[in-house]
């Protein structure tokens, strides 16, 4: 599903239920009929759901890899402890993992987080938070050097604060200082960089396929590159993760060979990417290369947009290898943009997007295929918050992904899923 036009239709009540259970020292396992509280002392780890981790419990965690190896975004730049790996269940890595994927953000265990309010983020020991960055790029370089944002610039992402770029720097500083129960427990940010679609609108061609055609306009792509460089500089040495361009790679894939679709990469950014090919694939590789230069501690992820994956997984693997996935640090997949209960209503199409065992197995096979085909772990992003206890009213639609994922964490980790990020579209 596309990220365009997603709405706040998920249910924050699931956060409250899980967090209440964590505080009470229990794990909430939501099944089809009821909510079952399981005493954590009787489980083989602090929490099956992954919300109450301790740094010393890594031997009892579900590993995302059989033979983990480090990546650059690992240690806390301040020299303190990194965010503790989320502990999910007892199992040895060798029994469930595969050897082709690597650690994600310094951890070999499944991390838990989401898009949430500050109050929610402080109520449990979450590992990650995510946020969108989406707007048209700044039309002039004076935006980047200004001491204060002008009122007319309010729609630009860089002015979501009083000083250009302060939203990123302020948020990074905030999560780095996160605590839980009075003790320091820093979190990390995942930024969803969702900008290329705006070039299609600026070109007057629309924000789907028109965005692919807009890459052949050096003037528009230059603005985009300048904005991206400014963003990376604001990330600086922070240990963030960057999720690159939901939807866009899917629209580009639909237009043919990614090594041949034209894009004015070298002329739009000769400073950083003059040696890259002037194609969509060259653009993706350029974006990863720029991050290594301007945000050297950031983990870089290409968003998986393979709407044809049920019958064409290997083509998806090949396309993402062309895009440079092997040079990235992770991939990002999203299950759905709305809750299954919303889609089930006749007014919304009456479709069935609840997971059966067969559907769940197919999704895990896809994640594992992509991970092993590129050598990178997969992050599940923007997972619907609905659960089976909801009543299918606004903000309370049913879904079963929360229920299923937390009840099958060994299978999740065995598919090389490195993080679960919950939240509304």
Explain the layout of strands and helices:
Blueprint: H1 13-23, E1 26-30, E2 35-39, H2 93-96, E3 111-114, H3 118-122, E4 128-133, H4 142-145, H5 166-176, E5 179-180, E6 183-184, E7 188-193, H6 197-202, H7 209-214, H8 218-235, E8 241-244, H9 248-253, H10 265-268, H11 270-273, H12 280-294, E9 299-303, H13 313-323, E10 330-333, H14 340-344, H15 357-374, E11 378-383, H16 401-407, H17 409-414, E12 417-422
Parallel strand pairs: 3-4, 3-12, 4-7, 7-8, 8-9, 9-10, 10-11, 11-12
Antiparallel strand pairs: 1-2, 5-6
How large is the share of residues in beta strands? 5-15%
Question: Which percent range fits the helix content?
Answer: 25-40%
Basic shape: globular
Number of helices: 17
How many E strands?
Answer: 12
The SSE order reads HEEHEHEHHEEEHHHEHHHHEHEHHEHHE
Low-confidence stretches: 1-61, 65-100
Q: What is the first-to-last residue Cα distance?
A: 11 Å
Mean pLDDT: 81
- By secondary-structure content and strand pairing, the structural class works out as alpha/beta
Strand order of the largest sheet: 3-4-7-8-9-10-11-12
Give the biggest sheet.
Answer: 8 strands, parallel, barrel
CA-atom Rg in angstroms: 21 Å
Structure notes:
The strands form three sheets. Strands 3-4-7-8-9-10-11-12 form an eight-stranded parallel beta barrel. A two-stranded antiparallel ribbon has the order 1-2. A two-stranded antiparallel ribbon has the order 5-6. By secondary structure, it is α/β, with parallel strands linked by helices. It is globular. Helix 8 (218-235) packs parallel to helix 12 and helix 13 (313-323) runs parallel beside helix 15. The chain contains 17 helices and twelve strands. It starts with 12 loop residues before the first helix and ends with a strand.
């Amino acid at each position: 599903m596309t990220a365009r036009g997603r709405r706040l239709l998920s249910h924050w009540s699931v956060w409250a239920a899980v967090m209440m259970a964590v505080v009470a020292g229990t794990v909430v396992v939501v099944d089809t009929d009821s909510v079952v509280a399981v005493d954590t002392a009787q489980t083989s780890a602090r929490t099956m759901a992954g919300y109450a981790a301790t740094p010393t419990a890594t031997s009892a965690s579900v590993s995302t890899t059989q033979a983990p190896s480090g990546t650059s975004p690992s240690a806390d730049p301040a020299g303190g402890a990194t965010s503790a790996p989320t502990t999910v269940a007892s199992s040895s890595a060798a029994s469930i993992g595969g050897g082709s994927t690597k650690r994600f953000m310094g951890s070999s265990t499944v991390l838990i987080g989401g898009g949430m309010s500050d109050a929610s983020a402080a109520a449990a020991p979450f590992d990650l938070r995510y946020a969108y960055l989406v707007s048209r790029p700044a039309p002039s370089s004076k935006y980047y050097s200004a001491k204060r944002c002008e009122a007319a610039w309010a729609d630009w992402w860089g002015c979501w604060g009083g000083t250009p770029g302060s939203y990123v720097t302020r948020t990074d500083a905030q999560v780095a200082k996160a605590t839980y129960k009075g003790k320091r427990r820093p979190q990390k940010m995942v930024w969803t960089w969702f900008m290329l679609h705006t070039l299609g609108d600026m070109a007057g061609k629309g924000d789907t396929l028109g965005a692919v055609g807009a890459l052949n306009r050096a003037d528009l792509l230059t603005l985009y590159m300048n904005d991206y460089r400014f963003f990376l500089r604001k990330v600086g040495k922070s240990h963030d993760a960057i999720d690159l361009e939901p939807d866009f790679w899917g629209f580009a894939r639909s237009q043919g060979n990614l090594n041949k679709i034209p894009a004015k990469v070298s002329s739009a950014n000769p400073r950083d990417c003059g040696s890259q090919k002037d194609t969509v694939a060259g653009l993706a590789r350029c974006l990863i290369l720029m991050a290594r230069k301007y945000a050297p501690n950031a983990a870089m992820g290409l968003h998986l947009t393979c709407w044809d994956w049920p019958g064409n997984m290997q083509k998806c693997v090949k396309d993402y290898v062309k895009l440079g996935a092997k040079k990235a640090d992770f991939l990002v997949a999203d299950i759905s943009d709305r809750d299954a209960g919303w889609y089930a209503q006749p007014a919304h199409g009456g479709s069935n997007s609840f997971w059966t065992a067969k559907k769940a197995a197919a999704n895990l096979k896809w994640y594992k295929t992509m991970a092993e085909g590129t050598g990178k772990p997969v992050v599940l992003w923007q997972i619907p918050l609905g659960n089976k206890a909801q009543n299918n009213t606004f903000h309370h639609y049913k879904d079963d992904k929360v229920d299923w994922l937390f009840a099958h964490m060994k299978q999740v980790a065995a598919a090389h899923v490195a993080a679960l990020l919950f939240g509304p579209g």
